[in-house]
Amino acid sequence: MGVHVASQSPSKSTIIKDRTKILIYSFIFILLIFECESSSSKDENRERDALLMFKMSLKNAEAVLRNWNNPPRLPCPRLGSSRTTPPWRGVICLNGNVCGLQLDCLKLSGDIDVDSLLELDKLRTLSLMDNKFEGAMPKFRKLGGTLKSLCISKNNYSGNIDDDAFLGMSSLKRLDIADNRFSGEVPTSLASSMRLLELRIENNRFVGTIPEFPPTLVKFNASNNQLQGRIPPSLCDITDTSAFSGNKDLCGPPLESKCDESGSSSSPNQIVSKANENMSILHVISVIISCLLAIATLVMVYLQLDMKRDGEKDGVTVATTPKGDGKLTFFRDNYGCFDLQDLLRASAEVLGSGNFGSCYKATLMDGHCVVVKRYIHMTNCGKDEFHHHMRTLGNLSHPNLLPLIAYYYRPQEKLLVYKFVHNGSLSKQLHGDRTNEKKAGGLNWPTRLTIIKGVAKGMVYLYKKLPNLLVAHGNLKSSNVLLDKWMQPLLMDYTLLPVVNVEQAHNLMAAFKAPAFCKQGRIDKNLDVWSLGILILETMTSQKLPSTHGSELERWVETIEREKVFDKEMGGTENAQAQMTMLLEIGLKCCKVDEVEKRPELIEVANKIQQLDEKDI
Ligand SMILES: Nc1ncnc2c1ncn2[C@@H]1O[C@H](COP(=O)(O)OP(=O)(O)OP(=O)(O)O)[C@@H](O)[C@H]1O
Question: Binding residue per annotation — 428?
Answer without folding.
Answer: no
